[in-house]
Amino acid sequence: MSTRVEQYRSAVLTTANQLTILRIVFVPVFIILLAYHEIGWALETFVAAAITDVLDGVIARRFGQKTSIGALLDPLADKLLMTASILILSLPQMEFHNTIPRWLMILVICRDVFILLVSLIVVVMIGWRVFTPSPYGKTTTAMQVVTVLAVLYVNWRNITVPELNILFYMTGFMTAFSGLHYLIRALRRWPFNE
Question: Are 104 and 82 in contact (CB under 8 A)?
């Protein structure tokens, strides 16, 4: 019996999955640091979380640690981190010097909810599918990470950078575009001819 438990642990608790779980743990830490306006520490926590995102993927591919639990946890960890970051950095109540525009926060959350709903519909209608991230989705995530890093940095330095607006619009465009692309991909899998 203990051999089965050990096999299960070694299959599930891979190094890649442990890094993903660590990223999930970083989310409440990041939120608490922002709530107390510890911007420098929040910035470092976000960077550490972003590094775990890169490392878990590299390790999973390089050392054959791709698992079904990892395929579920990794995007969940990404969404938790990015949604929490963008939401908190857009709240006027937090009284940050620089904030993410509310329209961008709404766009990001609506896209993520939309993708979740489409995924659920596909799973219910067709069965479980692993949706590999598209290049547009990866670019969107990268743009959102850069946006959060930029807003954290300018708040930490207490400076105003008008060019941030360009970054906000670029991130908004990629967020909307990748959501549309995701819908098109899902519709192509739809069993219209069955």
Answer: no
